[in-house]
Specification:
binds pyridoxal-5'-phosphate, aminotransferase, D-amino Acid Aminotransferase, Chain A, domain 1, branched-chain amino acid biosynthesis, 2 domains, 7 helices, L-leucine-2-oxoglutarate transaminase activity, 15 strands, alpha+beta, 29% strand, globular, 9-stranded mixed beta sheet, D-amino Acid Aminotransferase, Chain A, domain 2, 6-stranded antiparallel beta sheet
């Protein structure tokens, strides 16, 4: 695989990052994951706008114009012949001369890394026709989950707790209310109404979330942006998650309780179909 590191396209085994990189030492960096279908990038504009915001919130500049970032995405997809998969992008505050809690002097070059992941079948229906099961775990992450930082230790531990419980993922709960999944936004459905937590510092503003809520409204579904509890979710008609890499994925069980019929719900599947179709059409 060819990867991009600080201006160069190199074989993954030849890529080098300093041991003093603040991404490595302090999780002082942000990232984006963008899906690829038919060798084209989905929702690039949304992802790049969120990237700019994440960087700004942490006092970091954009290392290059958005168009140049898009060109790198496209070049890597082409070099690695990715038809379906994802592009991962990470930007850190760079590598100062030594480890120090204080930010490095202005002008210290940022570290910019991109790589691709091939995932044949990504846009297909195999996984979605089965759905996923989740458990709930306490949300003990930091207070700025709206910034897409590379501090992913707790979400990673959450995934392992889910695995240990024999399920696929975990929904995190704070003050009795669901925040989001380990790497996705969480939804329930009641009748014709889609319910998902309102935006704020407590969750990441998903790019897929924004698109799916827009499609839901266009399809005459009602959208309620408010928090909900695990108990409410367990008595909902349907549940699902969204993220750039899972699109819309039905949830069939929460903490051992079957949701609705126990099979993927019709609204979730319909929203998935609309999302995949429309994103494919608009891909760049
Ligand atoms: N919430 C969290 C914590 C995430 O890590 C992600 C994606 O990685 C999402 C939500 C979904 O965001 P998006 O739809 O932009 O992928």
């Amino acid at each position: 695989r060819t990867v991009y590191v600080n201006g160069e396209y190199v074989a993954e085994n030849d890529a080098k990052i300093s041991v003093f990189d603040r991404g490595f030492l302090m999780a002082d960096g942000v990232y984006e994951v963008t899906s690829v279908i038919d060798g084209k990038i989905l929702d690039f504009e949304g992802h790049v706008l969120r990237l700019e915001r994440s960087l700004a919130e942490l006092g970091m500049p954009m290392p290059m114009p958005a168009d140049d970032l898009l060109a790198i995405h496209r070049e890597l997809v082409s070099l690695n012949a990715v038809d379906e998969g994802a592009v991962y992008l990470q930007i850190t505050r760079g590598a100062p001369a030594d480890r120090d809690f204080a930010f490095p002097p202005e002008g210290t070059p940022q570290t910019v890394v991109l790589f691709t992941q091939s995932k044949p079948g990504l846009a297909g229906d195999a996984a979605a026709s089965k759905g996923i099961k989740v458990i709930s775990i306490p949300d003990i992450r930091w207070g700025r989950r709206d910034i897409k930082t590379v501090q992913l230790l707790y979400p990673s531990m959450g995934k392992m707790m889910a695995k240990a419980a024999g399920v696929d993922d975990a929904w995190m709960v704070e003050d009795g209310m669901v925040t989001e999944g380990t790497s996705n936004n969480a939804y329930i459905v009641r009748g014709n109404t889609i319910i998902t937590r309102h935006l704020g510092n407590e969750i990441l503003s998903g790019i897929t979330r924004a698109a799916v809520l827009r499609f839901a409204r266009e399809a005459q579904m009602t959208v309620e942006e408010r928090s909900f509890s695990i108990e409410e979710a367990q008595t909902a008609d349907e549940a699902f998650i969204t993220s750039a890499t899972t699109f819309v994925m039905p949830v069939t069980e929460i903490d051992g309780v079957q949701i609705g019929s126990g099979s993927p719900g019709p609204l979730a599947l319909r929203l998935r179909e609309i999302y995949v179709d429309e994103s494919r059409k608009a891909a760049v």
